[in-house]
Structures are given as C-alpha cells and as structure tokens.
Amino acid sequence: MNKDFWRGKRVLITGNTGFKGSWLSRILLDTGAEVFGYALENDDEYGVFNAIGLDKEMSCRYGDICDEGKLSEAIKGSDPEIVFHLAAQPIVLKGYEDPVYTYRTNVMGTVTLLNALRDRSGLRSVVNVTTDKVYENNDNGVSFRESDRLGGYDPYSGSKACSELVTSTFVSSFFNPVQYGISHNAAVATARAGNVIGGGDNAPDRIIPDCIRAVRNGEAVKLRNPYSIRPWQHVLEPLALYIMLAEKLYENGTEYSGAYNVGPREEDCLTVIDVVKKLGQNFPSLVYELPENAPETDLHEAKKLILDTGKISEKLGFVNKWGIDECIGNTALWYRAQLDGEDMVKVTDKMIKEYFEI
User: Which regions of 69-173 does DSSP assign to beta strands (E)?
Assistant: First the structure.
C-alpha cells in the first residue's frame, strides 16, 4: 500500500459497518484518506465497527443499498474518486432462508450503485467485492480461474455471480474502456475473495465467530461441514489486494479492469475441523461437536473450493504475507484482547501497522 497515494483521496465504502468494510475503513483512515460510508446501521457491540468506535471517526450515511434516493445523496455528498462496494447479504444459509432479500441486495444493490455512479466525472476507480463462490462448482477439486464459468448452486452464490455479470454489463455499456478519458474516467474491477477470517467478525453461521460465541457463552460449537476445504485468509490479505487494485485502476485506468481471484496459497486451504483445532490452541476452553450422519435434506455447500491466484501474482505482484498459522494466530489475538477488555483501537491499529509496515 502506498500511504502517500491515499492521503486526501475521497473514498466511499458501501457496507462500511460490516466486518471487512470496518477494517478497510480503519486502514484508509490511518492513511489520511477522506473516508465516507454508506451502509445499514450496526448495533453489534462485539463487531469491529462498534468495538473501535468507527461511527465517531468517519462520515457515514445509513440506508439500504437499493434505496436510490439515499444512495444518490451519499454519493453526491462524498463525491468519491474511489469506491469499494462491499454492501451485501454475505451469508450462505441466510440466502436459503431469504432468497428474495439476498438477490435483491446482492444483484439490485450492485445495479443501483453502478447506475448512481454513471454521472460522476471525478470517479476514477471502482472495486466490486464478490466471492470465491461465484463459480459453477462441481466439486471436482480443480482450482478456479477467473475465466471459468460462473454459476452458483445456492441463492447466495448465484446472486454474487449475477453481481459479476451486472458489473460486466455496466462496464460494457457505461464504463467502456474504449471511451475511457472521453465520456468517463472510471476503471472498474471485481475481486473474488475466499473465506475471510479475522477479529471483529460476529456474523452468524461463520465458523470462527461461532467458535468465539461458544467460548464466550461456555458452550460447544456445532460443526455443520467439518471436512469441507476452504481457502482461508486473514481479513488484511484481501483488503491489501483491494487497496492495491484501486490504486492501479486510479493510476493506470482500464489496464487493470477485470476480475481477480483473491485467496491464499493452496497449502493454506484447510478443512473446517483443522481450522477449529488450530483456533482451539489459542482458546483451550473451545469445545466442538461433530454432526451426526447428515440427512439428504441438508442444504448444499461445496465440499472443496480452491482458487487459482496466479493472476494477482503475475499482474499485480501480490503475494499473501501470512500463512494459515499467522492468520489464525492474529485472529485469535484480536478476539482474546476483546475478551480481556483491552483497548481495541490500539490492538487493531497495531495489527494494521505491522501488516502494512507503516
């Protein structure tokens, strides 16, 4: 990250009250950027947004990502040069429970945002954050490349694949590279990140937050899919890539447009139960329960999901800093500090400074 680049830049982050959005906000605030947020309100005391008091540190407007009026006001008020789109319904199981809300938020939210950005002459770069689950996954164990077929077995995955298609359509129609510097000045990219862990995530139906809640409440955590393999990475890893990508888009235009996989090395892709065991080394009171034989009616989740990250390495020169042990160790460090009542602003800033060497 080029700290000097960000000083004074006007940045809009949608979903800034969420897990990744909060960490991204704090990183950019530390660089001296003017950071604006648009998101749903978040009253979760354990989540990172409230744990580090971001509501007092940045300008934030609250509203639904599909609310054209409120979103337009937020965009006009911030007049962003750079936009990170993280507002989403991010939970697979929630997608099954409420598919209409999931598609509305993840698809029409992207439409609403990109449409509102069309007339912003000062806009230079847009990064739409999707997911590693956008691919049509047949559980054949092959690492997915950016050129592979998009799909989605479940509503969450399908909605994020649609968000990718929406972005591609808006690029062709309104942010076309041929018209760059003529009718617009914006370059657009999407980032497909694998399973992200880190301190301050308190979302339901995610394994690390489920484990921390179990520790906090003195209960056992129930593992739904203990032997599923996922590309685990600490939250600072994909955020570093998003930041790098936004810089490249700003400085080099459409040369860096397109889709990018964001994930760890293949040796850091572990099963759920292996991750829980490693976390348990930091929390001796953590107890887990394995599921009984799963009935045929259980909701589908892919058994194996690994990304090919050659593109970010070759084109952007991006290499993950932390292996799986450091990822889990730093995640545990943050949660342990919170459980012990430490100053979470200091803990968070220290971790950011150590990672980015700033």
Answer: 82-85, 125-129
DSSP conformation class of 224: S
Domains assigned to the chain: 3-356 (3.40.50.720)
Give the separation between CA 99 and CA 78, rounded to whole angstroms. Answer: 32
With H, G, I as helix, E, B as strand and everything else as coil, classify residue 60. Answer: strand
Using one digit for the tens of pLDDT, what is the confidence trace for 150-201?
998 999 999 999 999 999 999 999 999 999 999 999 999 999 998 899 999 9
Q: Which two tokens stand for residue 309?
A: 């990250």
Report the distance separating Cα 71 and Cα 81, nearest Å: 16
Own/partner long-range contacts of 351-355 (Cβ < 8 Å, ≥24 apart): 351/199, 351/236, 352/23, 352/26, 352/27, 352/30, 352/236, 353/30, 355/236, 355/240, 355/321, 355/322
Distance CA 329, CA 337 (A): 12
Report the amino acid identity of residue 286. Answer: L
Q: What are the tens digits of pLDDT across the range 299-321?
A: 656 667 889 999 999 999 999 99
Please list, in sequence order, all residues whose beta carbon lies within 8 angstroms of the beta carbon of residue 281, skipping any fewer than 6 positions away. Answer: none
The answer to whether the CB of 307 falls within 8 A of the CB of 261 is yes
